[in-house]
Amino acid sequence: MLLQPAHSGMLATKTALPVLKEVLVPRERLIHSLNGALSRKLTFISAPAGYGKSTLISQWVHQCGAQAAWVSLDENDNDIVRFWRYVIQALCQDGDGPSADRTAPLIREMPGLSVNLAVDALINELHRTSAEIVLVLDDVHLVTNPAIHSSLSYFIDNMPGNVHLLLSSRVDPPFPTVKWLAQGDAVRLAARDLEFNAAEIGAFYRNTAQVELSKRQLQILSSKLEGWAAGLQLVSLTLPFEDELDRYISDLNSSHLHIRDFLFEEVFNRLSADEQEFTTQTSVLPQMNASACNAVTGRSDGQSMLERLQANNLFLIPLDAHRAWYRYHHLFADFLQNLMKKRDAEGWKRCHRKAGVWAAERGAMEQAAQHAFAAGDFGLAELRIRDQIQGKVEQGEFSTLTRWFDQFPDEFPLSSDMRLLRAFIQVVTGQTERAEAELDKMERRELPAAQGEEAEKLRSGLLFIRSNLLFTSGSFGKWFAFKSAIPDDDILTPEPIFYNFNYNQSKPFVRLTDLGLRGGLSEDMERIGHLFTGVLQSHGWQDSLIHLYVVQSLCEGYYEWNRLEDSETLIHRLESISRVGEIPGLFVPNRMTQALVHAARGQWAAAQDTIGDALDHLPNTTDPHWRRYLWAMRTRLYVMEGKAREAKKSLADLSISAKDKPSFNRYFEYATLAKVLGAQKKEPEALRILEQLLPLSRRENCVMATAEILCLQAVFSHAAGYLKQARRFLHDALEIGEANGYVRCFTDAGPAMDRLLRQYEALQPQAEEPSRIARKAISGAYIAALLASFSQADTGEARPENARSEANPPESFTSGELEILRWVRQGASNKEIAGALSLSEGTVKVYLSRLYGKLGVSSRTQALLAAEALDLLEE
What are the CA-CA distances from residue 683 to residues 106, 677, 680 (Å)? Predict the structure, then answer.
């Protein structure tokens, strides 16, 4: 079934290759031109409707020998996330596209990836394949979003030589193409190239109408129709009925517009009344099968009618090989729709309502919404949109939601919860002024009049959206004023879409997301974060995802500030909430942060156990990038511990190499690769990876990643003997670090960073080289604080592994932990302990990790010694 989505909300028909039609007139000269263009980057075919663009391209891709991917574009594809999802789906259509196992997951990851990252990742995967690929984007003129034009231009500039892009449009491409033409990278076919010449016109009529036209008649037709394919087909439908061909051909008006209207009218009038009614009513359907036609027309013979129209060559285009699904040619659909709206406006709306009901019954809610809007039934449109908002938000198709909300007229009384959702979409898409105006209006007009449960829901929604504004625009004042007006004992009721909005679908740490300010840290944000989470807890939102994500972001920030106790307090708070384990975007960052805290204390076994248990916890159905992050963290821990051999072995799970062109959506993995290469004394290879990652990180304005990359560049450049470059990289890292109070970014780079900082400190009073005079000076106090952090007891190098944490007195150990200790004292293995206590081995590992953390140790032997010193196991 063509309405069945290939991915949630995605239609398979849009990326299906068109059915190859019977070749009525072989167009060898054009096929030859397209074959010649295959060695270039780009072909763009621009011609008005009806010039046979799609037919020509379909003929060509079926015989060109390259792997073909096709996207049939429409007005709905002006959502940039949706656009690129369909491009990726087309390239992976049969599961054997370019690195399909790595490329297809981008469809699911895109809500959490910027489009730039997704396009970069797609380009890199295309580089990996040697297959010759043709990507066709049909009806590009329907895509008017400038952001899509820009990203498509970027894609063309950077796509590999084995990929050829063909754009089909009614107008010239919406971005400059001169540079590609000038460089010989593009071929352009215009309307005049697609025109049928006299010989082709003669062949066309012999094959379609079985009419042999004279040379003079062919010349007249060629002159009047100017090779217009649709015009030729329209004339062919009337020629067999004309006794006086000369007069008929001579009477054709020379204007394409007049010819089109005249000929369509002629064709339509020759249909039976039954066929006229059927075609006008079904013209509301963008694509149709017998069931859809029957639903709209109230008939039962939809299949036979479709077959009859197809047999008569009546501008009906098959969409699948089984000829169950069809669409009208765009020109014929336009004619029929205009005719019906003029003759029967109420019938037009009625047909759209029926089509909407049929689509909704089959789960095609997006089509159902479009039919409701077309019928002018805004109440029904609101219901249809309500059914889809959760899915669209999860998929990141915010432009689609914006377009839908903008279709409601100002006078339509949109419900308050839908207005809240509209404001939320405006916040997410950066329309902060519109969102502020909407919220202010609702607070002034609607909130004072609301009562009971309605008032609770309204306050809940307003607080949630103002909270998102707080973390995207810094509008703390209005948030605090609104929060202060809510009584402390007023328990808020979150709407499911607000409560379940997932802020992290693809990042290894929450600090890398927009909610985590992409790594930006400040005392103000710490204060606001605590106020914010306190408010949510006091009003019953402690399990809401926005609360949990803010807590995790604070936890990661504390680790970066080297406040390990504070970080671990929040780690354990989240760990105790069962919901965290169901959300990979929370669970994986939480477990990796815990592992880093263990590593910072020199508790290497506990750190690795934490990652191992997290890997055991993740179900096999979890998106693969979460497992890759845990593998990468395991590898990083080996590097930090100085176990280069184990790190190299662990790296194999990531399936990446120094020869790759890294994409930023896999920054964490490629930075891990650089760390391993550096540990193997392969600094040039590590620097090549980092050199490619740095501009991508800066483009994404990712403070956290940029600082780490610069630190690694500094260390590896210095090791390779590039002393000036090392100093420059270190200075840039220190600028970011001082602005945000970073510590662990530097200490986790190891002893080499300690030495590099001491050299930098010694040279600091000297003037910078002339080209760097404009650089901001780094304060001596910040450098001194960093150097001190390398010798503090909480760093892995300086702290002995058997050192006990005085912050954990005996009473802080649970009975379960003490029971585990008793079994350890008896020499029982993890498996034996698990069996005796009816636990999983993973749970036993977690208990041991916590014990190691509380005791300040990293092995069983050390744990027993520490427990004996504390008299924990006295009977």
Answer: 31, 6, 8
